[in-house]
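Example 5.3 — GNAT family protein
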Amino acid sequence: MRARIRNIKEDDAERYLNLCLRLDRETEFMLLAPGERRTTPEEQRQKLASLLASEVSMIFVAEAEGKLVGYLGAFGSDLKRNGHSVYLVVGILQAYSGQGIGTALFGELESWARKRGLHRLELTVMAHNEAAIALYKKAGFEIEGVKRDSIRLDDRYVDELYMSKLLPA
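Solution (predicted structure tokens):
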């Protein structure tokens, strides 16, 4: 099955929120635990409107069978000193992993980033998330360091890896 990759639209607010809520329940690898996300559909629509008005941030969504099944968010800054960089957040429903969606999302991101003259793509990933680390390495990301005991999962602490990809200037 092929997913269509595109920029998010304001009209996607409720479907995007539902995707995020499902990811919160489905995997421990997202930052928010089940029940922590309290955004309303209207608040989500406002956040998307603000994001879409920015030249330095975008959310790319993967759509299959009429529903959103994954996303890659790129969040940048208008500041001079770090305006060359975007922080990434990725989520793909488990039923759709391993189908090339992540690779396609990163391809779309990189094209968007190059058009904007961005230089640094960065993210953090839980150190035990082997599938995500493999995807990021496949996309050209390298491990820069370890953020020790960065996340608390139930009764244990988990390290995160800092990863980045530098685009040619």
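Remark. The beta strands are 4-7, 58-64, 67-76, 85-92, 120-126, 142-153, 156-166.
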